[in-house]
Amino acid sequence: MANQYKWITWLQARQALAARLADPGMVFWADAELKLYLCEALRVWNALTEVFNADFAYTATAASTWYNLGTLALSPRLRTLTDSVLYQQMQYMLLEPPTGGGAWTGTQQFSLADLQGALQTARDEVIQASGCNLAQLPPLSSTPNVRRTVFADSTLEPRRARWKPDSGSPVTLSREDTLAFDAFETGHLQTPRTPSAWSVITGPPLAFDVDTAPTVPGAYDVISLQAGANLVPPAATLLNLPDDWAWVARWGALAELLGRDSEATDRQRADYCLKRYEMGMEIMKQANWLLTATIGGVPCDTPSVREMDAWGPEWEISPTAWPGLVTAGMDFCAPCPVATGAQSIGVSMIVVGNAVIPVLDADFVQASRDTFDEILNYAQVLASFKMGGEEFAATRPLEQSFFKAAQETNSRLAKCGLFSDVIRGEGQRQNKAQPR
Fold first, then answer.
1. Can you spell out the DSSP letters for 100-159?
2. Which of 104, 195, 178 is CA-nearest to residue 144?
3. I need a surface site. Which of 12, 246, 261, 312 has the fewest CB within 10 A?
4. Which residues, 6+ apart, have CB-to-CB distance to 34 below 8 Å?
5. Can you give the residue ranges of every domain in the chain?
6. Are the beta carbons of 170 and 317 closer than 8 angstroms?
7. Which residues contact 83 (CB under 8 A, 6 or more apart)?
8. Local confidence pLDDT in tens for the 436 residues of the chain
9. What does the alpha-carbon distance between residue 66 and residue 283 come to, in Å, rounded to a whole number?
10. Distances (CA, A) of 227 to 19, 87, 115, 116, 231
11. ∠ at Cα 222 (125, 187), nearest 5°?
């Protein structure tokens, strides 16, 4: 980073947190533990304020239409956190030996299987609520004169479908339902022809129906919200969540672990975790990820795929389509026009990047002087969780101060631009055009 804060190092930040906790020798809170809490505090601050804006450029080719910034090399939104990191943090917070995804050496209150099951459930709930794990599925073959197609069981919610016959022009299907088919398409069951619409609400789970059975072989091109990969410790598995929002799933997992009827039951902290989990999901639903974009060095619009399908039908195969960066949801986009043959297209974006996390002791913490104390406040709250009872409850004012500071920062930033309200909503255009 050419422009960065250079006033407090990573080591000094951890020492400041240890002093806050009256544990300068890092006896009750290990140095590795303090790192986790400060990392999360930086990530939560960025999740709430979206201040770590970053430039990103990539080259689009004919090899792919859609690009996922969560997996694209060198992306400032690259998803790097694994389940092992969250297991370790949960173990610290539950006063268990911090083995991460390794062999469980703690008490009988919990087990690694408990942590894995709770985290996987919460992770997939967060994906569903936020729509943050989109993918273009491999082509789904269709059988002539058959209206129904079945998905793999990793499918959470199909968002868009196109019919692509083996020969001929593709058709982007409008999302409707069986009642609309019956009311507006007379004879749609009696006269097979090229399908024009699809429905996912009147069939069984993991299936969709088209209005009219196609008469020729082909395949469906589907963009779908997908469940995360199965967590299989001791192997470390990517969470399929944006790094700055992984904490939401962690609170959900802790809420389940502490809310069970067992010797681990702690209703007070379970309720606290559940509130943080629900709050996090609601905020994440409104989170932005994209600010502006250029195609070939020229500023362009960033329409949702729903808008683009309406304004420029079959824009994916039209060389004269209006230039833009089409967005299907968080971190999922396609340049338009789409590259063909040996053509390449330069795409530049300004995105809400991941919080910058220090690595070495001498690295500088990327926080301004006016916000670092609030980040320490939140890290202290996280560190105090394992004490429970009155000691943890006493940190509530620190947490309130942190959230209030984030709100004030957002209010100030909203007044710093002519169109800040539009810019900070560009990444939500698909959800606005096609509510979930």
1. TTS---S-TT--HHHHHHHHHHHHHHHHHHHT--EEEPPPEEE-TT--EEE--TTEEEEE
2. 195
3. 261
4. 14, 17, 18, 26, 379, 383
5. 1-51+356-436, 53-77+289-354, 134-226
6. yes
7. 101, 116, 119, 120, 231, 233, 236, 237, 239
8. 556 999 999 999 999 999 999 999 999 999 999 999 999 999 999 999 999 999 999 999 999 999 999 999 999 999 999 999 999 999 999 999 999 999 999 999 999 999 999 999 999 999 999 999 999 999 999 989 999 999 999 999 999 999 999 998 999 999 999 999 999 998 899 888 899 999 999 889 999 999 999 999 999 999 999 999 999 999 999 999 999 999 999 999 999 999 998 888 999 999 999 999 999 999 999 999 999 999 999 999 999 999 999 999 999 999 889 899 999 999 999 999 999 999 999 999 999 999 999 999 999 999 999 999 999 999 999 999 999 999 999 999 999 999 999 999 999 999 998 888 899 999 999 999 999 8
9. 26
10. 41, 19, 18, 15, 11
11. 115
Q: Residue 418 contacts by C-beta under 8 Å, 6 or more apart in sequence?
A: none
User: What's the rounded Cα separation, in Å, for the pair 243 and 44?
Assistant: 10
Q: Is 207 helix (H, G, I), strand (E, B) or coil?
A: strand
Q: Left (φ > 0), alpha (ψ -120 to 50) or beta: where does 346 sit? A: beta
Would you say how long the chain is, in residues?
436
CA distances from 328 to 162, 196, 332, 427, 429 (A): 14, 20, 6, 9, 8
The burial class, CB within 10 Å (0-12 / 13-18 / 19+), for 238 is middle
Closest to 355 (Cα-Cα) out of 77, 56, 141, 55: 77
